[in-house]
Fold each of these.
Amino acid sequence: MKTGTVAIIGRPNVGKSTLLNALLKEKIAIVSDKPQTTRTRILGVVHLPGAQFALLDTPGIHKPQHQLNRRMVRTTMDCMKEADLLYVMVDATAAPGPGDRFAIEQVREARQEGRPPAFLLINKVDAVNKSRVLPLIDAYRKMLDWSEIVPLSAKNGINVDRLLELTVAALPEGEAGYEEDMLTDQPMRTLAAEIVREKILHLTRDEVPYAVAVEITSFKEEGKLARIQASIFVERDSQKAIVIGKQGELLKTVGTEARVEMEKLFGMKVFLELWVTVKESWREDEQTLVELGY
């Protein structure tokens, strides 16, 4: 059996989590158009005839400005060390920029003698004219010794099956490391917290996303009902006002959308309560970061 670990690497906001969900055919990672949406390592398991491999969705590689961000980048570097194959993602809608070069340089430094092999994945090709793709391939080809270069669209599924074929061919032989029905190692509490955070990212202005964290303070299963209480942390009173919204309408929308998605994912009814709390400079507080799972 072909088996191993594949780490998805790249600068923020290139579509890593979207690709993870596409390859698993299930949504286990939150997605948004805000950079640094993914803050921790997320594992998903792909099961194919004659193959099984773990996918590691990682935080985007960037130059960190807070303790939280330093932890995020360190998580990504650690994932590269345990991988048998790297997916290095870039965005077809933009020319290679400083963020891409920085991410690829970190990949180069983490590899030893060309190992593990690295695939260049040029994402979002559905959003550009085909004539733009070949120049991008030429530009990136010079930056690293890629084992494969795959233009694709994680969102629309273009070339995703081809990527799976190439991945299986590149993985080593081994024994299956996961049960056949295992999809992710993310506990329900973590998934619930991330779903709430995703809805906030979608509904709030640019000021808020980086300063928001969600902690599940209570998760009780009562038969086919889950009672969930969550605290939403922000760093300033102005951010708290944004998350709550006029007459509480935005927070109510967050709660409704999160509840509906949780019920679909967990297969049970959900009763969800949300509170918003100001916790100044939580991104620099080591104890808070540990408590939040970062």
Amino acid sequence: MHLATPVVAWETVDRLTMRAWLAHLSRRGLSKRSSARALSAVRSFFRFLHRADLVETNPARAVGAPKLEKRLPGHLDRAQMETLLTAAATRAQEGRFTDVRDLAILELFYTAGLRLSELRGVNVADLDLVAGLLKVRGKGRKERIVPVGSAAQRALREYERARDTLLGAVGPKGDRRAFFLSQRGSRLSPSALHNAVVARLGGVDEGAGLSAHALRHTFATHLLDGGADLRAVQELLGHASVSTTQIYTHTSVERLKQVYRESHPRA
């Protein structure tokens, strides 16, 4: 025989009732993220009841949402990244425009840790391959200067030649300001850029479901693994707060723990 769930009138619900309900959700095995969504729905419902004068206050407003676990970002290890870039370079040697372009995209993502929107927005005038620098327009129209590594510089120069050939073929309708172009000569769309990168990532780790953003995570993780200063990585990523960058230190620590478990005789 199952005990019936007690019925509670809406007007009698208070902060303690709400806290007991959240504890009940936790005992049922709901994740903190699911509990937070449920609390948000209840807040909205009580806000409606309050506006309709059916309750005097909104008890859900006084209850804090469960603190969400920070999810470690998906990224590639060094061997996977080398496999990805080697495969892209092999395809690019055949000279097809899309393959040459996609290698340049992968190299620039990895060398500069860009967001997808930032890479799409790169203009010809933003790149200085002689100095090895790129001007990036980030969130909130903030600009930053990031270095471009030697391997990326080579790939970008090869792409520049392929881009010039394409623009000569498409004529005046080609976008001469945008750096990364479609085969029609227009600035590459966000979906086309994302799909091109995801297709390459799938060849390295098909079941991981990695997005283009994984290359930004890979950039940050490899820098911190190599001993880079957290503040320097923050500036390179264009994060407003160092707390946002600290998520990558968790990834680095997880890698160290794995090495420890696999290597130490008494782990």
